[in-house]
Amino acid sequence: MTTSTTSRPALFAGATVHGLAGLKRLRHRCEIPLVVLAGAILAVGYALWIVAIVQLFAVEPGDRLFDGLPLARLLSFLPLPTGDPTLIVVILGFAPLAIAVVRAVIYAKVRAGGVRMSPTQFPEGYRMVVEAAERFGMRKVPDAYVVLGNGVVNAYASGHGYRRFVVVHSDAFEVGGGARDPEALRFVIGHEVGHLAAGHVSFFRILFISLAYVVPVLGPAVSRAQEYTADNHGYDCAPDGVAGVMGLLSGGKYLGAQVNLHALADRAATERGLWLHVANWMSTHPVHTWRASALRDRSRPGRLMVAPPRDSAWFAPSQPAGGDPSAAWGTPAQALRRLDAAPAAREEQFGRYPGVSYDEPADALRLADPNGANPAAAPSPGAARDV
Q: How many whole angstroms separate alpha carbon 92 and alpha carbon 72?
């Protein structure tokens, strides 16, 4: 069977049949403007790189073409030893090679030590990869591997040349067992395949945004926008996996079954303050509360710089926020009275285990009213909400 040339990867074809832009409906609205800004910074960096080369290799200092020009004097503000432009020449000159080598080594290590998903090895997970690739219009099915997590819940996507691959840590993969939450795993895999489909792991994208990370706030903001885009892909694959994946990310693979999505998402609106914002600005991934808020309410794109408004909370707060005055915090006696009046726990503290039958579905707790009211009254993520 011959392969159509239109399905083959090419330099400017993009990872999907939708072209370089991918699925525009799933891309966060701030991603491309931030990438363009990062590209402008890279262009300035390489302009300085050209100046540095001229400064290094001109025969006589008085003959240097750029001597005295403002652009050349910008080099004096860079963290270079004694104004020597050698460092910028080395860093920017070898950046493309360094990126290519690092990508090759990562792929080689995964191929050498990971368990490769296939129709006969972790077939359920592999089917999720293939279905996500088909849903997003990818030209080729990406490689998929399981690696030993050693307690770390993580997954990532990368590439080498035209090859794309997804890696899932074994600890994250464990949420996919039949007695647990396979939809959470489907979301995780959809998220990672979404990175591939959106072009986030291409060589040129990584090079394009590389210099942005030396600019405070900008580099992490680009990364957070890309994470929201990948979350949109994950939601497109598995909307029922939202509660499970947010529980997994914030509570872990066992306690995640105890994490209430609404309580987590509502705190994005109530937990405020400068230092909370600084914590988000420094992060390459959206903080969990903001991320949960964006995944629960699909009418609002994920926030990059400013917390969601207070009216985005779905329920009345059950406890004071961390930024509230100390007078609002209850005494131990008050807290004990509330604990005694709270509904009994629906399942044991340590979550759900394989081979154990549970009378209530997992979402009975994860999507309940966080104040303990009738669980059936709490809307599901993505549902229309009366304001």
A: 16
State phi, psi for 385 to the nearest 5 degrees.
-125, 135
CA dist 59 and 310 (Å) reads 64
How many other C-beta atoms are found inside a 10 Å radius of the C-beta of residue 228?
24
φ, ψ of residue 365 to 5 degrees: the values are -95, -40
Contacts (Cβ under 8 Å, ≥6 apart) of 305: 221, 277, 280, 281
Per-residue pLDDT averaged across 82-108, rounded?
A: 79
For residue 82, the model assigns a pLDDT of: 42
Amino acid identity of residue 319, one-letter, is Q
Q: What is the pLDDT of residue 177?
A: 53
- Asked if pLDDT for residue 1 goes beyond 50, the answer is no
pTM exceeds cut of 0.85: no
Instruction: Dump the DSSP string for 29-89.
Output: TTHHHHHHHHHHHHHHHHHHHHHHHHHHH-SSGGG-TTTT-HHHHGGGGSS-GGG-THHHH
Residue-level pLDDT at 171 = 86
Between CA 162 and CA 202 the distance in angstroms is 8
- Dig out the tokens for 105 from the structure: 């080594």
Q: Which residues are within 8 A (CB) of 76 and not within 5 positions of it... i.e. 6 or more apart?
A: 83
- Per-residue model confidence as pLDDT tens digits over 131-147: 999 999 999 999 999 99
Q: What is the pLDDT of residue 344?
A: 60
pLDDT of residue 350: 46
* Burial of residue 356, with CB atoms counted within 10 A of its CB: 0-12 exposed, 13-18 middle, 19 or more buried: exposed
Residue length of the chain: 387
Query: What's the CA gap between 326 and 319, in Å, rounded?
Result: 12
Mutual angle of helices 288-296 and 261-270, in 10-degree steps = 110
* Section 260-272 average pLDDT: 93
**CA-wise closest residue to 110 among 166, 63, 194:** 166
Neighbours of 106 (CB within 10 A): 16
Please report, for residues 39, 102, 182, 185, 364, the alpha-carbon distance to residue 174 in angstroms, rounded to integers and kept in the order given: 39, 28, 9, 8, 21
> Comparing C-alpha atoms, which of 293, 311, 286 is closest to residue 226?
286
